[in-house]
Amino acid sequence: KDIRFDYSNADVKRHEIENLKAQVRQLHHMLHKKTGAGNDFLGWLDYPKDYDQEEFQRIFTVAERIRKNSDAFIIIGIGGSYAGARAAIEMVGHTFHNLLPKEKRNAPEIYFVGHNLSATYYQHLMEVIENKDVSICVISKSGTTTEPAIAFRLLRAYMEGKYGEAEANQRIYAVTDGQKGALRQLAREKRYETFVIPDDIGGRYSVLTAVGLLPIAVAGIDIRKIMAGAKDAWEAYHGEDLEGNPCYQYAVLRNILYSKGKVIEVLASYEPSLHYLAEWWKQLYGESEGKDGKGIFPASVEFSTDLHSMGQLLQDGRRNIFETVLRIEKPKEDIRIVEDEDNVDGLNFLSLKSLNEVNDHAFEGTLLAHTDGGVPNLVISIPEATPYYFGKLVYFFEKACAMSGYILGVNPFDQPGVEDYKKNMFALLGKPGYEALGKSLRERLYK
Ligand code: PA5
Q1: Across all residues in the chain, what is the average pLDDT?
Q2: Which residues does the entry assign to the active site, renumbered to this chain (predicted)?
């Protein structure tokens, strides 16, 4: 029972893989000896085996407190300070977590904010939490990111109005840089309980730190098992040899396909609970590889829903796509299709069949159809959607991403391109210091 990677439907020849073997070995050493680009952001690499146990214990204790005294838990963050926690809660938790009766949920309702600038979203959230006891966790490594900072300003005011400042401060938790940033300063002043994001771990590689673990633990998921999975992944994917390392094989295969013009990778899943895992994956790969005029465009689809929409394009559109299917071998639940005497719908050939079996055949049929249609298919299978395999899968993708970025020849740990929109937004909003840019942008926009 393990994560498996199958590239037998990728239409790639043996020698194409062999050709990259030596390069992978060399890049593996570059990664582990920390001599490559972005080497000051490699804290995630050995983290699963040497993380701060004391802080880990504190996450437990705090999560327990929040679970006891809160009906709703609001997580503020964006990008790497958001996607991983949501991915875990959705993948491992109950599909309708917030709608379950409280005694069944055994955790507060979970809400995410700070990942958009929609007034409607905030207003609606405020309506939902109105009569509930609330705790808040604000997550920002820089402590200055605009979207979560605005969210925090709004929710801080709400909390102080609702509980008075003293109690509000006890219901607010911050995950941020150990020393710098506006959030750290505010946390000091208000004496919020805080957790530290290590300097050498970038946002999109941070889900196994307090960034992900605190919200995940509050949602009632066993974070010890997540870290056990990540630690086993560290061990399992530690080898330099391509043959024995599925994580490097995935990195190699996607680069071979990219070099043949497959510039879009579609992550496909057959379980809706993987929706946010795919969102997290898109950020990881898109932000890590999309630079210097290069990069695979990471997209995602959910089957069978999207077989009735994007399925057409996948089967029959421009042949610049490859597909990576993320499979859960044994889904959490199964149900049997009922027998119907009248059989008006003609579905009695499915009577008493398991719905998972139907879903599996949808996967197999689609795999062959898409492969026949010229879309190479890679398959990553995980045995179960458990905390353990979430931890293992996260590390699998992170390490594969580092290797893949190095094969591509980029720095997988920076994100210079995300600054440009911010500069323009600040200039248009009249932030002091941006006057000249603001003037020139307005001339272009409103001429
Ligand atoms: O991967 C990244 O570095 C980004 O996606 C950041 O996580 C995101 O911009 C949020 O940054 P911060 O945690 O500083 O608010």
Answers
A1: 97
A2: 287 (proton donor), 422
In the three-class reduction of DSSP (H, G, I as helix; E, B as strand; rest coil), residue 393 is classed as: helix
Cβ density class 21-35: b for 16+ within 10 Å, e for less: eeebeebbebbeeee
Q: What number of other Cβ atoms are within 10 A of residue 98's Cβ?
A: 14
pTM passes above 0.95: yes
Query: Distances from the Cα of 287 to the Cαs of 116, 203, 299, 405, 446, in angstroms?
Result: 18, 10, 13, 10, 31
How far is the C-alpha of 159 from the C-alpha of 277, rounded, in Å? 30
For ligand 1, residues with CB inside 6 Å are: 78-81, 140-142, 145, 148, 202-204, 287, 415
Report the pLDDT value the prediction gives residue 447, as an integer from 0 to 100. Answer: 83
For 44-90, the pLDDT digits (tens) are 999 999 999 999 999 999 999 999 999 999 999 999 999 999 999 99
Query: Torsion-angle region of residue 109: left (phi > 0), alpha (psi -120 to 50) or beta?
Result: beta
Q: In 10 A of CB 349, how many CB atoms?
A: 8
* Residue 14 predicted with pLDDT over 90: yes
- Residues 175, 195 contacting (CB under 8 angstroms): yes
Nearest 10 degrees: Cα torsion 247, 251, 256, 260: 130
Q: Where are the beta strands (DSSP E) in 35-118?
A: 72-76, 109-113
Phi/psi at 254 (nearest 5 deg)?
A: -70, -30
Contacts of 163 (CB under 8 A, 6+ apart): 171
Q: How many CA atoms lie within 13 A of 360 on its CB side?
A: 11
Which three-class secondary structure state does DSSP give residue 190?
Answer: helix
Measure 246 CA to ligand 1 centroid, in angstroms. Answer: 28
Give one DSSP letter per residue of 315-356, joined into a string.
Answer: HHS-S-EEEEEEEESS-S---BPPP-TT-TTS-GGGTT-BHH
Pocket probe for ligand 1: among 76, 145, 179, the residue whose CB has the most ligand atoms within 8 Å is 145
Residues, the chain = 447
**Residue 49 CA to chain centroid, in angstroms?**
21
For residues 332-343, average pLDDT = 96
